[in-house]
Design brief:
- The complex is a heterodimer.
- Chain A has one domain: 3-Layer(aba) Sandwich (Rossmann fold), CATH 3.40.50.
- Chain A has a nine-stranded mixed β-sheet, with helices on both faces.
- Chain A is 21% helix and 23% strand.
- Chain A is of the alpha/beta class.
- By secondary structure, chain B is an alpha+beta fold.
- Chain B has a single domain, classed as Mth169, Chain: A (2-Layer Sandwich).
- Chain B is 33% helix and 33% strand.
- Chain B starts with a strand and ends with a strand.
- In chain B, 14% of the residues are buried.
- The chains are: A alpha/beta, B alpha+beta.
- The interface between A and B is medium-sized, with 18 and 10 residues.
Chain lengths: 254, 86
């Protein structure tokens, strides 16, 4: 698979994302500067974390006007995979590709910590290598990750099964204590109606191998690879039922 | 003509404002126990040229809707005044 990794002025997790998909998972990856107008040839586009345009006005508000965004709308429309992480999630919400908004953390603090995410569904492009109810160790690093949407939008997200990841405790319970930022319904990640655009505040690229404290984040990238290209040349690429899943599912967090 | 748009962007009433609550608590600790609520928003001044107030108003409205506020969480209002061209 070929991953395009968008770079805005102020993006900071681009190299980590590149390493996760190319270094750890052996896929092709290429950086795309925000002034480029084309996303041709990519199977998946990643909007990495950071502080695009210094988060001026609101996080993600300015990036929406970058030339590459016009190409991104077409890319998403074509059904190919888009994943926005942290600032990338904020950009997707600001651009209208995902509903809701990310507000300042409830505690008004920047939070950089491990979180446990409960996988709500395994039948999606982004979770095919997981199982429903699985707990993933993935870190957050943000000041504005408090997911907000009005009651009607939240109801629709829940009803349509579009909440993909929820902050939970070690037993998988989505408690108030396990919610690191005040997000509505403990929401850590959501997908669009069609299921090909994911936004999430936690950083899977920073938990993609044991050395980093957890390899669970790699499951999300591996899901995309497996689901989007079942005939991928990757030796471990296989159906979600494949035996190769076993070692990937093991939480590496000590 | 040159106009000055004074734009106020505020959180929607349904959206909680932890920063405003912190300010409110500080005001009360100062002795201003009569303070009932505090909400923090943004104030912007945009200098804009145009021939007629109506078209300028429409332009500022579009700016507010599409960039200066996030309609998911914020409301906006603005005042427009004619200023002497420098």
């Amino acid at each position: 698979m070929r991953f395009g990794i968008l770079r805005f002025p102020g993006t900071w997790s681009d190299v980590d994302c590149h390493y996760a998909v190319s270094g750890v998972l052996g896929q092709d990856a290429e950086y795309v500067w925000h002034k480029d107008g084309s996303l041709d040839g990519f199977d998946c586009v990643i909007l990495p974390g950071g502080f695009s345009y210094g988060d001026y006005l609101r996080p993600g508000a300015m990036a929406r006007f970058s030339p590459v965004m016009d190409a991104l709308y077409g890319f998403a429309e074509s059904g190919r995979a888009v994943i926005g992480i942290c600032n990338g999630f904020q950009i997707l919400c600001e651009s209208g590709l995902l509903p809701g908004a990310l507000r300042a953390n409830r505690q008004l603090e920047y939070r950089c910590q491990w979180t446990t995410l409960r996988v709500e569904r395994a039948d999606t492009l982004f979770t095919a290598a997981c199982y429903a109810g699985q707990c993933l160790q993935v870190p957050i690093s943000h000041g504005e990750g408090n997911y907000y949407a009005d009651a009607g939008t939240l109801d629709a997200l829940e009803r349509e099964g579009r909440v993909l990841f929820r902050y939970c405790d070690s037993k998988g319970a989505a408690t108030a204590e396990a919610n690191p930022n005040g997000s509505a319904n403990n929401i850590a990640g959501i997908i669009n109606e069609r299921g090909n655009v994911l936004g999430m505040m936690p950083h899977p690229e920073r938990s993609c191998e044991e050395l980093l404290g957890s390899a669970d984040g790699a499951l999300i990238f591996r899901s995309i690879i497996e689901y989007a290209s079942p005939d991928s040349a990757s030796p471990e690429s296989a159906s979600p039922e494949s035996a190769s899943r076993g070692k990937l599912q093991t939480s590496g967090r000590a | 003509m040159t106009y000055l748009a004074k734009i106020y962007v505020t959180l929607k009433p349904a959206v909680s404002d932890p920063a405003g609550q912190t300010v409110l608590a500080a005001l009360r600790r100062m002795g201003h126990e009569s303070a009932q609520d505090a909400r923090i928003g943004k104030y912007l001044e945009i200098r804009i040229s145009g021939d007629a107030p109506d078209s300028v108003k429409a332009a500022v409205d579009q700016m507010c809707r599409e960039l200066l506020s996030n309609p998911v969480i914020e409301d906006y209002r603005f005042d427009l005044e004619e200023i002497a061209t420098p």
